[in-house]
Design brief:
Number of helices: 4
CATH superfamily: Ribonuclease H-like superfamily/Ribonuclease H
Number of domains: 1
Largest sheet: 5 strands, mixed
Structural class: alpha/beta
Strand order of the largest sheet: 3-2-1-4-5
CATH topology: Nucleotidyltransferase, domain 5
Distance between the termini: 35 Å
Shape: globular
Length: 155
């Protein structure tokens, strides 16, 4: 059975968002984009990025159905616990009421079981390679994690 997973991240100061999609541990798709949405908090920025990644998950799920591969509970890894809490909370609160409605469709996909949003520590977030400048150690670790290069060729 094939496994699909997503990593999403953002760099608040640069307003750059990105995501990586993996199928059976192989990088199959990625995106990096300057955000057009102005966020007032890091949690909101991460929530918007998680929603964009959810759109990509739904599209990939529909493509895989054409090959009779039905997947549910696709893991989406996010490094913001606040954004994850917003995804799992079906009730609008005063602290999230300003977020545009189009970004809340992630909640319905979490409730339906199409995706599962999981926390990943910032040091393990693979999407950081396309959202921010990294030091050599972090860059090397992420390149290995993405499977882009054989780890033995790196010093």
């Amino acid at each position: 059975m094939a496994h699909l997973l997503m990593a999403c991240g953002t760099q608040q100061t640069l307003s750059t968002s990105g995501g990586c999609q993996f199928l059976d541990g192989k990088l199959i798709s990625w995106q990096s984009k300057k955000q057009t949405y102005v966020s007032i908090s890091t949690a909101e920025a991460e929530y918007v990025v998680a929603t964009a990644c959810t759109s990509q998950i739904i599209w990939i799920q529909s493509q895989l159905k054409d090959y009779a591969i039905n997947m549910r509970k696709i893991p989406l890894f996010c490094d913001s616990q606040s954004a994850i809490r917003i995804c799992h909370n079906p009730v609008q609160h005063s602290k999230t009421k300003h977020i545009a409605l189009r970004y809340h469709f992630i909640k319905s996909h979490v409730e339906e079981g199409n995706i599962e949003v999981h926390f990943v520590h910032t040091t393990e977030q693979l999407a950081d390679i396309i959202t921010k400048a990294l030091n050599e150690e972090a860059f090397t670790r992420i390149v290995r994690g993405l499977g882009m290069i054989d780890g033995s060729t790196l010093q």
